[in-house]
Amino acid sequence: MNSQSRESVEGRRFLVTGGAGFIGSHIVGALIDNGAKVAVLDDFSNGRESNLPTGSPALELFSGDVRTFNFDTLGKVDGVFNEAARALLPSFEDPLTDVTVNAGGTARVLEYARKCHSRVIHASSGSVYGNPVRIPISEDHPVRPISPYGVSKLASEYYCLMYKNEFGVDVTILRYFNVYGPRQTVSEEMGVIPIFVKRALAGQPLRVFGDGKQTRDFLNVSDVVRANLLAFNANASGSIMNIGGGGQEISILELAKKVSNLCGSRSEVVSAPPKPGDIRRLAADSSRARDLVGYTPKVSIDEGLRSYIYYTKSQS
Q1: Which domains does the chain carry?
Q2: In sequence order, which residues have a C-beta less than 8 Å from that of residue 223 and are 6 or more positions away?
Q3: Is the separation of the CB atoms in 31 and 63 below 8 Å?
């Protein structure tokens, strides 16, 4: 973060929902490192207290669910980073809970921000596009989600835009593409890179779903954090922006081989049945974010993988 950005958050108070989770905890750390005070709200279904700088006097920790939490107990904040959400695969098992968390929870956060006159940076997803008709995907691409998760994230965006247009809430929407990095949960529903790295380091087979030719634009979490802070500091209210990895499209099969090589592993790549709702290609056009807030991804896939592999080894 440059000095101008530091000045814009220094001394201010923020709320980060889902702040003990993978992406949220990195945003919390960046805010505190740059002189802000942060209230974290998390239900700890996926987040962990160990992800947070709990010894910092700048941190306030609240355990609660965005669907039921009494936001009035938080008092006023200058900005909200809304990261609380349910993940993709559980949405197929329980679509109703998915929509109440991702859409209903967002509506409650927006209502709180309306009372506080707070700026909101809302985390959405490239999943809203569904199977793309053109690559890279720009924000004017049709939105045709093919999963309950994608539908609920799109609904959350409509709540954001309605609160902007009808109530004057200062809200910016960031559509993340495939994010990876330290603190990401290693599970089938939370991202392929942590799974591949863990299995490769253990010499276990790397499972590729379907034919492995699905492609993704992987995005390092440090770039996501920078995008959030740039968006908060910019005058981009009402905007929707893709936050991707710079169009570095790579197939899952190629990724498996790359991870295996970087880990020095002899893990075999094996096939598994396709996953429901698995989008064939995802690669973002992030030029709007570049033009509006100055965002360009900094971390290449090779650099990010090496860093993540080093982190994973250090945790074992």
Answers
A1: 3-181+220-245+283-298 (3.40.50.720)
A2: 243, 245, 295, 297, 298, 299
A3: no
Angle CA(211)–CA(308)–CA(292) in degrees, nearest 5?
85
Helix (H) or strand (E) holding 24: helix 22-33
For residue 239, CA distances in Å to 27, 128, 291 come to 20, 16, 12
Catalytic residues: 149
Tokens coding 83: 């990261």
pLDDT given for residue 276 in this prediction: 76
The C-alpha angle with vertex 105 and arms to 232 and 95, in degrees rounded to 5, equals 125
Q: What percent of the chain has pLDDT over 70?
A: 95
**Which of 24, 78, 79, 13 minimizes the C-alpha distance to 48?**
24
Phi, psi dihedral angles at 120 (to 5 degrees):
-120, 130
pLDDT in tens, 236-247: 999 999 999 977
**Distance between CA atoms of residues 229 and 284, nearest Å:** 19
- Kindly report, residue by residue over 37-92, the tens digit of the pLDDT: 999 999 999 899 999 999 999 999 999 999 999 999 999 999 999 999 987 666 67
Give dist(CA 109, CA 82) in Å, integer: 8
Pairing relation of β-strands 179-180 and 249-251?
unpaired
- Does residue 270 sit in helix, strand or coil? strand
CB atoms inside a 10 Å sphere around CB 113: 25
Largest CA distance in the chain: 57
Q: What is the mean pLDDT of the chain?
A: 93
Q: Which residues contact 117 (CB under 8 A, 6 or more apart)?
A: none
Predicted pLDDT at 34: 95
